């Protein structure tokens, strides 16, 4: 028997597992495709996302209703490493402002970079999820009977 194929009773065989339903087959295909796709860049992406969460307490801010409570490790690190001030305020996303559909402003280059880095992690993760989904559907449709295709 090959790595995957349909069995005579309407069930499927995949990677040494017998009698799989279409749903179980789809699950194991997604797991297999995810294991192929995920690597070091995804650990980096996750670190950027977590590093961008406002977990570090800060002193009071001027406009507590509009600002995010706390700051992120990335923003703090970037502000410490890059002390350059911009001549004008630039718009940048934070978790809170993105949920409210607004943008925060900063004239700190380090803060600006620190606020954008988590979104790089989000983009990498979105790409991986899209690729895993696309490859899983394609592979599932190659394996199953025509009436079971997605």
Care to describe what's here?
- By secondary structure, this protein is an alpha+beta fold.
- The chain has one domain.
- It has helices spanning 22-37, 40-51, 73-81, 95-100, 109-143, and strands at residues 4-6, 12-14, 17-20, 85-92, 104-108.
- The strands form two sheets. It has a three-stranded antiparallel beta sheet with strand order 1-2-3, with helices on one face. A two-stranded antiparallel ribbon has the order 4-5.
- A hairpin with a 5-residue loop joins strand 1 and strand 2.
- Helix 1 (22-37) crosses helix 5.
- The two termini are 24 Å apart.
- It holds the Pfam family DUF8209.
- This is Phage membrane protein.
- It comes from Candidatus Pantoea multigeneris.
